[in-house]
Amino acid sequence: MTGRTRRVEGTKIVQRRAGSAVLAAAALLLTAGCSSDGEPSDGDGSASPATTTAQSSPSAPAAGQTPPPAKGSVKVLRTVATGLDSPWGLAPVPGGDLLVSSRDDATITRVDEKNGDTTELGEVPGVSAAGEGGLLGIALSPDYASDHMIYAYYTSASDNRVVRMLYDEKKPAGEQLGAPDTVFRGIPKGMIHNGGRIAFGPDGMLYAGTGESGDTGLSQDKESLGGKILRMTPDGDPAPGNPFPDSVVYSYGHRNVQGLAWDREQRLFASEFGQDTWDELNAIEPGGNYGWPDAEGEGGGSGFRDPLAQWSTDEASPSGIAYAAGSVWMAGLRGERLWRIPLKGTEASAKPQSFLADEYGRLRTVAPAGGDKLWLVTSNTDGRGDAKGDDDRILEVRVR
């Protein structure tokens, strides 16, 4: 599988936006897990069954909360939009519409959730789209109702970085994005393993999943930003309560994190690509070491966090995840399916189930759509999929 062992030089310097204000709010400490990363070049291979690993839960489920049923279901309700080019990140906006980033075109597009009509907000300047890099994850400011800021993670000519831009709906289409304000820079870049998922947590802090850019040594180096989950204030400073002094590093030993989600108890989970053997879903603990490159999958030994579930790389190659109906739902790229992992605390309460296998091709992003519904974004126009005439698309699905 090409792209799994290529090495790229990484960056070791943590740089944050000068003069940014540190938020005084107390941080919520989120919980436990392990990880693997990087999107491999797709290929065929024999599937092996998913396995689950039990690990102690740092906090019990809420009173009266029962685990989800062992068997779930997925129903595709409708196709929301078609004809999207290399979609990557998704962010619902107040009122129901959806913002979608294009990795290769470096544009952000608004999709009318009711009729699928699209309006381009504009192009993000400075994006260098090559290999797995480009315009990746997007997220709305926690104060979006008042500041109308869109955050974006992208690959530049020199690094991966996080910026924020004013979204002005009153301006003409194509001119609605303000100039990028760099919030955080210096994340290692490469042709592979650029991470890219960003999300604001329930504590109001900004989390970013990064990759080791093909240089495996970065993952265990706590001074490097590569192969990490980062946690920062909306202005790009180390968040209060982070496990390492004056550092945005929240967890380390990752290969390529591309999925972040929280459950009802505000516990953080992350998906990650393995190299040749095991892809992983991890429950994230502050300061936790998830093993890469010394461990892939469970059984890595003392000091490493085991995944709560793992898959053969043929079945998963995971990107986005979301929490709904008591389960984590994980989009599979090479696996071309949606995985359900029912939870009891930070353990998988039953064997993972797959849905939609080989029906819609590669699946890149899954996001909550309210209640028991999810948004699901395909990824067949990214150069690795088998694009059909109406690809790529956004689906609305109901899950149980």
Automatic annotation (TrEMBL):
Q: What's the short name of a Pfam family annotated to this entry?
A: GSDH
The record's section on InterPro entries has: 6-blade_b-propeller_TolB-like, Glc/Sorbosone_DH, Quinoprot_gluc/sorb_DH_b-prop
Q: Which residue stretches belong to region Disordered?
A: 33-72
User: Where does the Glucose/Sorbosone dehydrogenase domain start and stop, copy by copy?
Assistant: 84-384
What is the superkingdom listed in this entry's lineage? Bacteria
Compositional bias annotation for Low complexity = 33-65
Name it: Glucose sorbosone dehydrogenase
Origin species: Streptomyces parvulus
